[in-house]
Amino acid sequence: MATPASHAQASLAGARYGLSERAAYNSLQDQPWDTIEKMMTNIWSPDNTNGLVHLGVAENTLLYKEVATHINNSSTIIPDHHLGYGVGPRGSPRLKKALVSFFNSEFRAHEPVLEKEILILPGVMALIDALAWSICNDGEGIIVPVPFYTGFKPATSTRARGVLVPASIQSVGKYQCLDDVFDPEINRKALEDALLRATQNGVKVRAVMLTKYEIPKLRKLFNLEPPLTHDAPVLITRWEDAM
User: Fold this and answer.
1) Would you say 128 and 156 are in contact if contact means Cβ atoms under 8 Å apart?
2) How many CB atoms lie under 10 A from the CB of residue 195?
3) DSSP for 196-217?
4) Is residue 177 included in any domain, yes or no?
């Protein structure tokens, strides 16, 4: 991992290219897509059996053909809904209505979820960026258990200037094997250690983010029923909710 750019380096880049301080700093950060784009030119397929199998994304390339066929055969463009501004940038009323029904029936919310409370964003990266920008001031943190998708770091820091605080169960003294990933006590200790480490480093923690990978642990840690099966991160914004 590259060393974060210094203020002097950012100032030099800003002066050289006429960038804002934010843009200058971001221009000096790692660009993971440079490597990923090179790798994506040699992905495995039935026609490229010597290609690479990309395990870094939650996609099933074996279904691409079936998905493409379904889209081509089933999609209907409704100009007033799908072109121009359509029904607006916050998600269609039809989608929100379906989500409200799903959330209320599957998650048994303590309070009914309302359509006006749902905001649709284009993907998990945009979601994390928006949440970090809304929750964190510059330099404030969000704890996320390890491992996590590498895109979470730039989504948290690039625009919002938040800090991703990793919580690793392997650093817990009682950790013995991978089965401990489902141990509530070890997970609780990992979260507490991450909070303590962040505090010692001067980072105020504003939230805990739990992803689909964490769902089995989340169920045990918070005794949640029914099982959570969705893909989006769960953001707990009050630390006492996680303890």
Assistant:
1) yes
2) 20
3) HHHHHTTPPEEEEEE-GGGHHH
4) yes
Among 182, 147, 130, residue whose Cα is nearest residue 58: 147
pLDDT for residue 239 is more than 50: no
Express each pLDDT in 33-48 by its tens digit.
Answer: 777 788 888 888 888 8
Over residues 181-217, the pLDDT tens digits come to: 777 788 888 888 999 999 999 999 999 887 765 455 5
**Whole-angstrom Cα distance, residue 211 to residue 125?**
12
Q: Are 77 and 152 in the same domain?
A: no
User: Which domain covers residue 145, as residue numbers?
Assistant: 124-238
- Single residue among 92, 117, 142 that ends a domain in this structure: 117
Residues 132-160: tens digit of each pLDDT: 999 999 999 999 988 787 788 888 988 88
Instruction: Give domain status of residue 158, yes or no.
Output: yes
Q: What is the count of structural domains for the chain? A: 2
